[in-house]
Amino acid sequence: MVKNFVSFDIISQNSIFCFSVPSSTLELPQAGGNCQEIKVWYNNIMKLEFKINKTYLLVHALKQQILPFPEWVGLKNYLWKMSPQGYEFLIGSPEIFLKISNSKEVDKIIRKSFQLIKKGIKRKEFRRLYQETKEYKSWLEKEWQQSKNKILKWISEISRLKLPSKTITVFVTHPKLLNGKILTEKSIICWGHPEDWKNYSVVYLTHELMHIITKEKLNSHIMHALIELMVDNEIRIRLNKKGKYFKEGKFNVGHDYLLPIEKKILPEWKKFLMSNKKNLFQLEREIKKKVDLNI
Ligand SMILES: [Zn+2]
Q1: Is residue 295 part of a domain?
Q2: How far, in Å, from the CA of 90 to the mean position of ligand 1?
Q3: Based on the domain organization, do 7 and 113 belong to the same domain?
Q4: CA of 7 to the centre of ligand 1 (A)
Q5: pTM here?
Q6: Are 287 and 268 in contact (CB under 8 A)?
Q7: What is the domain extent for residue 264?
Q8: How far does residue 208's CA lie from ligand 1's centre (Å)?
Q9: Domain end: 83, 101, 132, which one?
Q10: Per residue in 73-89, pLDDT tens?
Q11: How many structural domains comprise the chain?
């Protein structure tokens, strides 16, 4: 066992999990606390709650170029015909501002766009979108439940950061469309994506979680590259029990603009994985000082 790490056995339903966490992150029940209490403590760290917000689901699907299913275009046309300006506002089309000359018009257009939302939610195309997203949400929740203990153990061990005891809401969107965003200040993840490879969604939910954990470093390319090395690569390979860095089948893994940084800092990353002297923030600072990233 790694120094400064404390290990536990957790009995969960039919299986026993053995995991270790850095002693610095511990806020354990009093001595003598039983397994149940420890389990409750562990489950309280970064709990994910999966939800669907109908307005968000609708507007997200209207805004995308890709269709969740061919009939969706019928709803797009129906709403556009009802109010072209309200529709343009809803999907964030910048051209709307070429057509507006005063704030009174803006108020009118906003009201129109809210009417479109109400109408859209009642249509059969939306009912199908909602039903398919509900099924995807149930699947996603199960995927997360199956892997979360392993994942939280790994991100705690690898990053050596304190994992906050907070609930994070995941707003789920249709799985054929593309979504992966965080609203850090509200502890919200927006997620919906085709499962391009095994454990894809679970890996990227963890990626977004790491953005929340390291929020003060959100604008740093180095921290983003470290998150991709840790989650998109290391945790993906651990979960899938096979694979290699930067490639999964025919897919490249990670953002194109971060790949040159990731390849350059890979030796520092590998050393970090093998040692237990510093945490992820300290590694980031060290890389900033030591590695010339003018790529
Ligand atoms: Zn990211």
Answers
A1: no
A2: 26
A3: no
A4: 30
A5: 0.83
A6: yes
A7: 48-52+134-289
A8: 6
A9: 132
A10: 999 999 999 999 999 99
A11: 3
